[in-house]
Amino acid sequence: MGPTVVSAIGPDENEMQYLERISAQPFELESRHSTDDEMRSDTAEKTGLGNPDSSIDRNESPEEPALYSSDEEQAVLRKFDRHLVLFIALLYMLGFLDRSTDIGNAKIVGMSDDLHLTSSQYEWTLRSFYITYVMFEWMPILYTVLSPSTYITFCVLAWGAIASLQALATSYRSLCFLRALLGISEAAFSPGVPVFLAFFYKRDELAFRIGLFISAAPLATSFASSLAWLITKLGQNSPIAPWRMLFLVEGFPSVVVSVFALYHIPNSPGEAKYFTKRERRVAELRLLKGKSKVDQKRGGRKFEWAEIWEALKDPKCYLTAVGILLNSTVT
């Protein structure tokens, strides 16, 4: 079977239209080596791959003509960084406030006295969060099963509501129960963010973006105490105890932001609402570079039991879980 014949650029086509047309007609390279060389030479001449001054992305192989420029790819990355990574970091910052800083500040302004908590009981309220957090860290696999925008929205709404409900705690047991639920809701979100970002970034681009995401935690601690002081100061003359006001005010923003998350977070590069039609196409094409045809058919999200088994055999997973548990015990 001979190679597929690709027509030349038509009279009404520009170079980009020509490239998009020929990309829809996969090359069949099962002919003699001489025919392969002729096709590669012809493709390189038409796409500019052989021209060192060409503005077309030259990272593609000769058999796969580039369909976008390096400038277009960088523009897509910058938009993802501004609209996606920073928004996910904002969610993590809100979750970190609800997870760690609010209960410590609540203790200072009278929670332990009102609930009659001993030192040991207070420590167990902290541990209850991390126990369920570790137990439910498998939940981020749902990023590959459910719609990410819906899943993330549910997680943010859940931890915001639970964090606010801590204001209604009347005893040690009720507080521990709410902290355990909070651990489940946050375990469903934070550990899976690298998996979610992999739907939009290449592997060599992930480290920097994950670093931006994690940096939201120390950012939250930098102003958490000042924010807690302001909230409790304003709530001194209210009928609600200052520590209860603290839980309400710091948990409610997550509930509000969860509404925006549903519409702002895309499920795939091709669904980003802040992209033009061309940018969506570039965002999808750039992730196909270097992937096999099998991987391209599978797409960016697919649950595989074999990968779960590989994770269960990896000792690093267990070391991480033990580290988190010991950290909560020490602190």
Can you give a write-up of this model?
By secondary structure, the protein is an all-alpha fold. The chain is 67% helix and 0% strand. Helix 6 runs antiparallel to helix 7 (172-187). It is globular, with a radius of gyration of 26 Å. Mean pLDDT is 79; it is low at 1-8, 25-41, 43-64 and 292-299.
Give the tags:
disordered N terminus; mainly alpha; 331 residues
Number of helices: 15
- Could you tell me the mean pLDDT? 79
Q: What structural class should be given to the helix and strand makeup? A: mainly alpha
**Largest β-sheet summary:** none
Low-confidence stretches: 1-8, 25-41, 43-64, 292-299
What's this entry about, in short?
This protein is mostly helical and 331 residues long. 67% of the residues lie in helices and 0% in strands. It has helices spanning 15-23, 33-47, 70-108, 111-115, 119-135, 148-165, 172-187, 193-197, 203-214, 216-234, 242-264, 277-288, 293-298, 305-313, 315-330.
Layout of helices and strands, plus pairs?
Elements: H1 15-23, H2 33-47, H3 70-108, H4 111-115, H5 119-135, H6 148-165, H7 172-187, H8 193-197, H9 203-214, H10 216-234, H11 242-264, H12 277-288, H13 293-298, H14 305-313, H15 315-330
